[in-house]
Amino acid sequence: MKKMLVAAVSRVLSGVSQKPASRVLVASCNYSNDATFEIKKCDLHHLEEGPPVTAVLTRQDGLKYYKTMQTIRRMELKADQLYKQKFIRGFCHLCDGQEACYVGLEAGVNPTDHIITSYRSHGFCYTRGLSIRSILAELTGRKGGCAKGKGGSMHMYCKNFYGGNGIVGAQGPLGGQIAEAYNMAALWKLPCIFICENNRYGMGTAITRAAASIDYYKRGNFMPGLKVDGMDVLCVREATKFAADYCRSGKGPIVMELQTYRYHGHSMSDPGVSYRTREEIQNVRGKSDPIMLLQDKIVNSHLASVEELKEIDVEVRKEIDDAAEFATTDPEPALEEIAHHIYSDNPPFEVRGANQWVKFKSIS
């Protein structure tokens, strides 16, 4: 009888779904709902007051920022791998190390705001709403890419995001004209935030060797400016909110310099260690890594546990691997579509090949 009772209890218990130990741990912990942190004071130019020196981080936002930053980091590392495997060709500018800039900027503006950036655009592509699949597939030149495989690393677009731009500085005048078109205001009154992501190097030249003044937030001359710690997502968020409020109040444009760092070279063709030492890179990774700084804030203030963050890491890696599988197996655009999307209505026309006697006829 006792054996039968034990067997019956065993069958009942086996029918109950068992949660993973880590899930049970997360559910049983008493986490804080939010925490307040001191953040670095911004240097100001032509401003009487600047962003606050404290910031509140909720548990929900903390986990969201952490996952987004980890996703951008892992996406860029996967792009590095795909480039070395020759799935990605041509120019490829990676942004790992600068994750706090993209996440903090997006957290400080509205989804309806308009953004245009330079060639180092992958982070913005993701925070603006493009999927990892569409980004990696664009890098590999596949039909499932956000620009149907025809734009590559520097030319990705989505709603209210006007892409990376391959020409250095092109986003400045283009962004000004976008703002003018939407606001119909004089240029000096436009609600624009001009952002300089200062990662200490212009291609392979240190900023101290290339400019008489490295206070880029003052380069607007009569325009006000901010110098922001671009390695702290909360600093970037609060500074962006301040700058956005300043612009929306009708005071005109503002310049915001984000002091950050890129771990990769200028592009994938640049090893990144001929003009800076490996020790310098490791020193930044060890002391100022934006993901590490956010993780420390979250864990030390009891917004989440290390185990919960590790679960996020596993989830992100799987999502990146799945996207990479798609980006390497999705078909390339058909040859017949080579001239599509040049004109809005795709009219048929002839394209001369490398040999002037060979022509390709585009059919719409």
TrEMBL record:
Cofactor: thiamine diphosphate
Record-linked Gene3D superfamilies: 3.40.50.970
Occurrences of domain Dehydrogenase E1 component (ranges): 68-174, 176-335
A single MF term (Gene Ontology): pyruvate dehydrogenase (acetyl-transferring) activity
Keywords tagged on the record: Oxidoreductase, Pyruvate, Thiamine pyrophosphate, Transit peptide
InterPro entries per the UniProt record, alphabetical: DH_E1 (IPR001017), PDH_E1_Alpha_Subunit (IPR050642), THDP-binding (IPR029061)
One biological process term in Gene Ontology: pyruvate decarboxylation to acetyl-CoA
Pfam families: E1_dh
Protein name stated in the entry: Pyruvate dehydrogenase E1 component subunit alpha, testis-specific form, mitochondrial isoform X2
Organism for this UniProt entry: Phyllostomus discolor (pale spear-nosed bat)
